[in-house]
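[job 0412] stage=fold_complex status=start
inputs:
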Amino acid sequence: MAFIKRDERLPLYRQVREEILEKISRGTWLPDTAIPTEAELTKQYGVAIGTIRKAVDTLVNDGLLYRSQGRGTFVRRPDFNTSLFRFFRQQPADGSFIVPESLILLKALQVPPAEASTALNLQANQLAIHLKRLRFLKGVVVLTEDIWLPEMLFANLVDIDSNEIGSLLYPFYEKHCGLLVASATETLTIECADDDTASALKIETGHPVAVIERLAFGFDKTPIEYRVSRGSADTFRYQIEIN
Amino acid sequence: MAFIKRDERLPLYRQVREEILEKISRGTWLPDTAIPTEAELTKQYGVAIGTIRKAVDTLVNDGLLYRSQGRGTFVRRPDFNTSLFRFFRQQPADGSFIVPESLILLKALQVPPAEASTALNLQANQLAIHLKRLRFLKGVVVLTEDIWLPEMLFANLVDIDSNEIGSLLYPFYEKHCGLLVASATETLTIECADDDTASALKIETGHPVAVIERLAFGFDKTPIEYRVSRGSADTFRYQIEIN
DNA sequence: TAGTGGTCTAGACCACAAG
DNA sequence: TTGTGGTCTAGACCACTAG
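[job 0412] stage=fold_complex status=done
writing structure:
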């Protein structure tokens, strides 16, 4: 029995959905582990199995859970380390994905630019952790990245040596700061390379670059990370199917 | 009852889905009109209402149908005249959408470039209808477009005066050539403007432009139209949510 | 008021995975 | 063999739309 908070106005299957969502976001049910079986949930919530299935359906559809026939239903581990990265042409065309290498150039406490400050809901002039890094595929520089992190959330990161940080930041955030990225918005624009970007990417100043601005959120929708990535426009290719 | 072609290996709800898809693509059920009620379909196909609902669910999810409580379930009229266009910043930020004006510069029978020829499954050197046009928002040029159409499908279009073609091509294709666009793939890349593009868009040669290449298909997956649109990179902005 | 889709129930049998 | 999710049935009542 078991509705912690139920909004009577909502359909039953939506209420169940909210309950499950709560379990995932609070970490009661962990990524890559099975949630209770449908029969179990039926008992716990006192609703029919069809209702449980419909609730789980919506979460599977949203990508938060995945089902495996005969084994169970599992919490998906979110992974945004890939995302728009796959649209740079150094990636193999067969759909497989190479994890890009990474070199951190800077880790410092600085005043973030206005966009970052606004995105992260910081006070004016409030300091944030600034990471600059380069990302490589097969030894070739593909992206420059500027990353801004709220100091309160990432206090543990201040004293860590840059070399201890691996290629993928999100698993690192989770392990050292207890922060799990659950969703993000990305905005793609195009600009001309300034001197710094050009020399980092080994292109000419003024050459067009694709700019990917990402704001990543936790399960509770608080902004966790603001990131701007830049790559040469030559290698950029984004494909979409419309139905 | 009523299965025209049934693939016994598929689940019932998938078979029903295929049947409905067939009705839509053959034009038996027309856009913006209601399909039979769930009770009716239950009788026609001799399956339970839950199965009908599941089949319809998948089609609603794919955007081919939409439901309206108390009224019925309807065939969606596809509309790709918008799509990536909405990502140019001249569009109002409030989510509303202005239909761009359009000026046709050229209509001619020509040998298409290799990409167009391949995309449309044409023989080498086979002629196709070439349209060139400019598209405006609030009187400002936003896009140049090169459109290639297979002559066999668009025979009716050859003798039509350019001025009779309105701002939106897809409704025109449907009315005059009986061709309904059902899906499309779009690929976004970035290049530097050549002289022609630059003068059309009123930018400098070499200035970066966003290139949107679209291949549009009918319900039977035959390619109908190949289109390349170019707009100044300054005004381009594409946003995406990841969950 | 009649007809539609929206929600919900309480079962059933099947296909698949794992021990 | 046991337990899981995948499919399917045959109803029920509700909320909304339109005449």
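[job 0412] summary: Chain B has two domains: 12-75, 83-235.
[job 0412] exit 0
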